[in-house]
Specification:
- The protein folds into three domains: 56 residues, Alpha-Beta Plaits (2-Layer Sandwich), CATH 3.30.70; 78 residues, GMP Synthetase, Chain A, domain 3 (2-Layer Sandwich); 169 residues, Vaccinia Virus protein VP39 (Rossmann fold), CATH 3.40.50.
- Helices cover 24% and strands 31% of the residues.
- It is built from eight helices and 17 strands.
- α3 crosses α4.
Length: 334
Amino acid sequence: MRSLCVAVPAREAEGIRRALHKQGLLRTGISIVREGGTVFLPTASRVDTPYPVSEREFRESFAPIRSYRDVANVPAEVKPDLPTSFDIVGDIAIIRISEDLREHETAIAEAILRTNARVRVVAADGGVKGPLRIRDLRILAGPDRTETVHREYGLAYRVDVAKAYFSPRLASERNRVAQQVQPGEVVVDVFSGVGPHAILIARRRAPAVVHAFDANPDAFRYLEDNVRRNRADRVRPRLGDGIGLVAAVDRPNRIILDYPSDPDPAFRAALFRLLPGGTVHYYAILNAAEREERERDLADAAGSVGRSAEILAVREVHGWSPAQKLFAFDVGVT
């Protein structure tokens, strides 16, 4: 196919190619040609350049789409600022869009739909808010719905992402915890949500029972449904304040505290109930400097009630903000 082009010395071609691309002037979908010491860069229009401009034949080329950013219909200078990742829950993509990019949010959402075959809905994430951890969502593209079915490790969870908190980024962490559960253990999931921790343990391990608590009525409704859906008969769902409900069940061998914004009240309650030699899986949002301090705080909290705590493992789960990360602490209590 014929196209306008710029003929530049080979030694300068890469720098000029980048400049043309940044200005949105480099033509894509056709191959750049090199002949001897000259490189012919195809352009979308006639450009003002000190190098010769001409028209010639080029071969069409196929450029594989690596990311929605490759096809997003936004100005070239905006593309470097587009979000590099987003969460997918079932067939719903949840993406954080900065205020600077709000005018381009529809183009971003449409590009995500085009490049992700399993995504049907794209929603903007305004953050997790309130004690029940509810996401503030706005639908950007696709049907106006927030309910979906998410599949993870061969299990299926129905969830409304605007009514109950669910993070697909915790999948490997949920599996890591489940792999530690020994036959016959009593497990308590204090902030169960729609049940991914509890149901995975019940179906993949051999606990005596998994008590699953949540104070959010919507999350609890999905929890009960997911227990039935996955035939997780060893899960015992309870609606209410998980911290208070810990005292209402048999003393557990293992307690999961997936409430990273304020886990310490639940940790103190767990110390009174956990069987000797038991484990608390404690999650907290911290910056790097706070990690060692939090380890000391957990040991001090145990000592204050006549118990001792040993940090068995610490894992950085994923980033939370530019300065903070989500950390998982496995705490052994005697």
